[in-house]
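Translate sequence into structure tokens.
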Amino acid sequence: MLREGKLTLDNRFVWIDAWAFERLLGKAQEASRQTDAHQETAASLLDKALALYHAHFLLDVSEAWAVSTRERLRNKFSPG
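Result follows.
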């Protein structure tokens, strides 16, 4: 959708790997907080998320929005 000169994407119609990565990580974290029965689910979700991370986000783009998103995703991929 284009509004006031800004383009937005609707996740009902567009699949974005970075969004899927963050969504899967969130679900894995939530599952890991549950009972031991959910630990296998958490590990599976984490594996799926990590499989989506092929390279750093828009590595050749130096705009601030891309750099901050790249750093946020990189920190989630390799915390600590």
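Note: The first helix runs from residue 17 to 32.
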